[in-house]
UniProtKB/TrEMBL annotation:
PROSITE patterns: HTH_MERR_2. Pfam families: MerR_1. InterPro entries: DNA-bd_dom_put_sf (IPR009061), MerR-type_HTH_dom (IPR000551). This is DNA-binding transcriptional MerR regulator. SUPFAM superfamilies: Putative DNA-binding domain. GO terms for molecular function: DNA binding. The keyword Coiled coil does not apply. It comes from the Bacteria.
């Protein structure tokens, strides 16, 4: 006998339906506070239908789209649970609607917003604009990437190098996953 679509599911049922080990579901509960199964006596977990839909979205982003846990957490923070539920169910109209709503609500474009020193960046987005000087295309030694007197990189150039390093490490991680 099959359960109704709005029935609660045990961890073993969810794990089987989504082809995930149970320990992964328990781990994701610690990383994604949005997943809140009901717990009964003895610690048995019962997942609500909306929890299962959210887990489908998280699974899709992690396993099929190659996001990191931190990246999915950022998506949840920026777009909300419904965005990942829509992604997990393949409802692209809902995904577009949510994205358009977020864009309409945003008072400024992300490029125009000032960045804090501790704000997390997406991989591939530079903190500073590259200059001809940074790439050694300046007119003289004084215009190179290293200040003539200090022997140190400027703050902007250091940020550019840091971003390039992060990009390379992310590329390496993705390549290692494919192998």
């Amino acid at each position: 006998m099959d359960k109704s679509p709005d029935a609660f599911r045990t961890i073993s049922e969810v794990a089987e339906d989504l082809d995930l080990p149970q320990h992964v579901l328990r781990f994701w509960e610690t990383r994604f506070t949005q997943i809140k199964p009901m717990k009964r006596g003895g610690g048995r977990r019962y997942y609500r239908p909306q929890d299962v839909e959210l887990i489908k979205g998280i699974r899709h982003m992690l396993y099929e789209q190659g996001y990191t846990i931190k990246g999915v957490q950022k998506l949840l923070r920026d777009n909300g649970n419904q965005f990942l539920v829509a992604v997990g169910s393949g409802d692209m109209k809902a995904v577009e609607a949510i994205a358009q709503r977020k864009q309409a609500e945003a008072p400024m474009t992300p490029a125009a917003q000032p960045r804090g020193a501790d704000e997390e960046m997406l991989v591939g987005e530079a903190r500073a604009k590259p200059s001809r000087r940074f790439f050694g295309l300046g007119k003289g030694d004084d215009d190179g990437p290293v200040a003539a007197d200090s022997g140190k990189l400027s703050r902007d150039n250091r940020a550019l190098l840091q971003e390039a390093l992060f990009d390379l490490l992310e590329c390496k991680r993705l390549l290692d996953q494919v192998r």
